[in-house]
Amino acid sequence: MTEVNALARGEIAGLTTNNLDAHWMPFTANRQFKKDPRLLVKAKDMHYTSADGRQILDGTAGLWCCNAGHGRQKIVEAVQNQVAELDYAPPFQMAHPKSFELAARLAALMPDPLNHLFFTNSGSESVETALKMALAYHKANGQASRTRLIGRERGYHGVNFGGISVGGMVANRKQFGTMLAGVDHMRHTHNIAGNEFSKGVPKNGVEYAEDLMRMVQLHDPSTIAAVIVEPVAGSAGVILPPEGYLQRLREICDEHGILLIFDEVITGFGRLGTPFAVDYFGVVPDLVTTAKGLTSGVVPMGAVYASSKIYDAFMTGPDHLIELFHGYTYSAHPLACAAALATLDVYADDELLTRGARISQYWENALHSLRDCKHVIDIRNIGLIGAIELEPMAGEPTKRAFTAFLKAYEKNILIRTTGDIIAMSPPLIISEDQIDELTGTLRGVLNALD
Ligand SMILES: Cc1ncc(COP(=O)(O)O)c(C=O)c1O
């Protein structure tokens, strides 16, 4: 036993705790990373501090999540106080008060009828939850034949089996077998031709929404439960919905009794200059998945908004019976609730849920000033999101953008790449000077690329 405890403490001869080998890192080129690690040790406001003591300007809000910036005192204190007061409360048949306060405040932020919140711990779990709710809703509603789920090519809905089944990023699917049965995909809406260097939503492409009509005709609406889309797709390289596209999806869903799910894991909490994409596009879905900005990335948490129609469909039968057989040990964890409540306070105090609208013009101008840099084939933006698409190197897709990412990090800016696309989504507190620093540094990086 002594030996087990010593092992747990890392006190065994020969074991060094700075050995990088044991940690199998997610979505990472492990061997490349471990040869030349990029370790972040501190963060405050718009900057990370790297292990080698540099200040790194955060152009990605961590991973699209630290919308309030880093180390915000109010959030830090709320989490510290919470862990000392109530570390954990079981969420099944028991609860703690903060989860109800949080749900009520979140519901108030969304238009009617999205009035009910189900808590999870991540975007992936929010997606699984929403898909299961959609299936169970139709069953509760006497339409059990509606089992088919429709996603979209290049969609990203996290990494669990439901999410990769409706998702459309090939690399995230091809290693994992057959996934869920009964899923179909609409085409993605990315078409640079005719929409080059678009500012805000692209003008062309509303007809892609008619793919949903094709699914309806092919499968019959009586078999379709739900369609899930990201209002703005982030992980596949910032793919914007053409003008009128989301409205048309809503119309088709209404006409055929199909539930519409918006995956707002990245667009939620101010990213587009409005609280949600729901507000930006004026389209109200039946279910909305969120995570990331909900706690500004401080404690893992997700939440699914469900419309009253969906919630009410389950609230039948004897009172003592569980209505939905779904939930997580850490649903509505006290630390996550405390972090989310304090994050909402910070968003309100600093007007961050709408700040993106005020600086998006500056952001747009700065991004598009990179149009003439080497290898750039497209630039697009919306709210505080920007993408720069590079011409791939012949025979070596992704290499050019990954090189840009490494060089940018050397030059003290954090960007993100997917394929040959650079995606940026800074904390919503970014200043105009910092936008200039980000794009100015990127200009040098791009122009130095092979
Ligand atoms: C649209 C969307 N859905 C789901 C997820 C998955 O979230 P998580 O990594 O928290 O599971 C992400 C993550 O980037 C996302 O962008």
Write a structural description.
- The protein has 450 residues and is of the alpha/beta class.
- It folds into two domains: 25-71 and 351-447, Aspartate Aminotransferase, domain 1 (Alpha-Beta Complex); 76-349, Aspartate Aminotransferase, domain 2 (3-Layer(aba) Sandwich).
- The protein has 16 helices and 15 strands.
- A seven-stranded mixed beta sheet has the order 4-10-9-8-7-5-6, with helices on both faces.
- The N and C termini lie far apart (57 Å).
- The relative contact order is 0.15.
- The mean pLDDT is 96.
- The structure holds pyridoxal-5'-phosphate (PLP).
- Pyridoxal-5'-phosphate (PLP) is lined by residues 64, 122-124, 127, 156-158, 230, 234-235, 263, 265-266, 291.
- Belongs to the class-III pyridoxal-phosphate-dependent aminotransferase family.
Summarize the structure.
The protein is of the alpha/beta class. It has helices at 2-9, 30-35, 61-64, 73-85, 97-109, 123-140, 161-166, 170-173, 210-219, 245-256, 277-281, 308-314, 334-349, 352-368, 399-410, 432-447, and strands spanning 40-44, 47-50, 55-58, 116-120, 148-152, 183-186, 224-229, 259-263, 287-290, 302-306, 376-382, 385-390, 413-414, 416-418, 421-424. The chain has 2 domains: 25-71 and 351-447, Alpha-Beta Complex (Aspartate Aminotransferase, domain 1), CATH 3.90.1150; 76-349, Aspartate Aminotransferase, domain 2, CATH 3.40.640.10.
The amount of beta strand, in percent, is: 15-25%
The CATH homologous superfamily of the largest domain: Type I PLP-dependent aspartate aminotransferase-like (Major domain)
Distance between the termini: 57 Å
Q: Count the helices. How many?
A: 16
Query: pLDDT under 50 segments (min length 5)?
Result: none
- The secondary-structure class comes to alpha/beta
Instruction: Please tell me how large the radius of gyration is.
Output: 22 Å
Heterogens: pyridoxal-5'-phosphate
What is the 3D form?
Answer: globular
How do the strands line up in the largest sheet? 4-10-9-8-7-5-6
Domain count: the total is 2
* Mean pLDDT value: 96
Fraction of residues in H or I helices = 25-40%
Biggest sheet: strands, sense, closure? 7 strands, mixed
Could you please say which CATH topology of the largest domain applies here?
Answer: Aspartate Aminotransferase, domain 2
- Total strand count, please? 15
CATH domain class name of the largest domain: Alpha Beta
Which architecture name of the largest domain does CATH use? Answer: 3-Layer(aba) Sandwich
